[in-house]
User: Fold this.
Amino acid sequence: MQQYTFKTSKSNTRPVIRIYENLSAVIDTGADIPVCSDANVLIERLGANEISIPGKVIETVGISGSVRGRIFRVKGFELGPLIYPELNFFVPDDPTMSSTFLLSASMFNGLICEVNFKDHYFRITLLDDEQTVRLVSFEKDGEHICWDVRKSE
Assistant:
């Protein structure tokens, strides 16, 4: 068994961790797709490419209603022991997030994760047979975003 622990913010009521040289990321159990509030962070720091047709607006529906934005693909996104060879991020046109990243629960599908508010940490536990490389893809078919998460071979 392998465990990786992120400290969470003591001043926040949600699980906010630090990734990529101190960028904030909130773990969101209700999100279907990861979100980034700043396309420049994805492009300049993580080498992302826009995958939607330039100028075409993608809409996603959440608690706050319909949000317009674009999709970017990051190659080699790392989160502790987890490596996502290709991970798509939704970037809203008008971000209202206080964190740079919102990491969706779907990124951790099939894993053991623990949020401890008392001791201020977020822990990912990998069993001995779990792969660290996570292949995640999504398809948008009308109103649904579908994730396919599987282990690498």
Notes: DSSP finds one helix and 13 strands in the chain. Residues 2-151 form a domain with the Cathepsin D, subunit A; domain 1 fold (CATH 2.40.70.10). The helical segments are 39-46.
